[in-house]
Amino acid sequence: MLRLDTRFLQGFPEALSQHASLLEEARERLLAKRKTPGSMLGWMDLPEDTETLREVRRYREANPWVEDFVLVGIGGSALGPKALEAAFHEGGVRFHYLDHVEPEPVLRLLRDLDPGKTLVNAVSKSGSTAETLAGLAVLLKWLRAHLGEAWRRHLVVTTDPEEGPLRAFAEREGLKAFAIPKEVGGRFSVLSPVGLLPLAFAGADLDALLMGARKANETALAPLEESLPLKTALLLHLHRHLPVHVFMVYSERLRHLPSWFVQLHDESLGKVDQRGQRVGTTAVPALGPQDQHAQVQLFREGPLDKLLALVIPEAPVEDLEIPEVEGLKAASYLFGKTLFRLLQAEAEATYRALAEAGQKVYALYLSEVSPYAVGWLLQHLMWQTAFLGELWGVNAFDQPGVELGKRLTFALLGRPGYGEG
Ligand code: PA5
Q1: Claim to verify: residue 306 and residue 223 sit in the same structural domain
Q2: What's the CA-to-centroid distance between 77 and ligand 1, angstroms?
Q3: What is the tens place of the pLDDT at every residue in 309-361?
Q4: Are 213 and 326 found together in one domain?
Q5: What CATH number is attached to the domain comprising 225?
Q6: Which residues are marked as active site?
Q7: What atom of ligand 1 comes closest to residue 126's alpha carbon?
Q8: Residue 224: in which H helix or E strand, if any?
Q9: Which residues are within 8 A (CB) of 181 and not within 5 positions of it... i.e. 6 or more apart?
């Protein structure tokens, strides 16, 4: 369950009816593109894809020997799995992410791993990202050196269904390869095999995750007053003059979620619009309560240039009482209360303190940090982003700035066809 609270934002939800036609038109424009090839709206259909779920489960069951799972990928190919695995890992398999190219941590990882118990998952939609191919090459050499011909069982690929160097490599070597649907881009791919495969090895409840995402689809298409993604998109739209959008999550299990959101928001919406204007707001990740002791001072007394979204769980899955300690009188107000009660009080205190300081702030309450609620939240945020793309007149599904960086890297390293090395 996901619930919006705008108690400190004057004029909301009245603004909803005032902007009804703007929102309805944005939704119609978006949905009208749904069947147009290349519009990259395939993420809307991922929660219904039970065939892929079965394929992922079969693969998981066929590979009970895996003790270490190494995901090689970057950006949208790593941030979603990392966020969900941290939240719902049920123990057993250990996870490692090669989403960087710093040599020392790579060497440390290789020293620690047992190749015979390791599964490498190379993830890239384009199949050509330099960081991912470099990591794959290093791991491949290591697997081959230790396992000889048996290496093939230790590498699984997740990539475009037909094209790209990684697909071609998988076919040439006869590797198991999962498909990221053509119409699904990197930062919208968390509910494709990009996220589902690692989560199957993490033992997460995939049915509940997808069920939650289906609920988000339902609310996105619901009448305006019940359409949560249209409401939060309007909130961001009405505050687009504030350059900073803080996304603060009160959950240690969801500690990597803000980074996933930052990519989704910034890479989708930071663009030149149809009129040639630069648009976008800068998403800033924050974690509660840790950042109460780091960023919240600035949020409270620094510039009033922010829209803050607080994501707060309403109930724990498990809780722990704070026991009484003799000789620690200063903490007696805590004794007998639970850790979750403290977490909730901190979130509420921050919420009130920010509103009192004059910052624009709202809360999104999660019924609890469960696969169902988080699946709902992720898909909700994808809809929010897609609606904002329409409201701001940008294509939320391309990333010309990122592609430019990739091309310049290729040129600097002498990739044929991209200039000199
Ligand atoms: O959202 C996106 O499309 C990008 O951030 C990509 O995920 C990122 O650049 C990695 O690309 P690829 O999956 O092609 O390796």
Answers
A1: yes
A2: 6
A3: 999 999 999 999 999 999 999 999 999 999 999 999 999 999 999 999 999 99
A4: yes
A5: 3.40.50.10490
A6: 267, 293, 406
A7: 14
A8: none
A9: 42, 45, 46, 161, 192
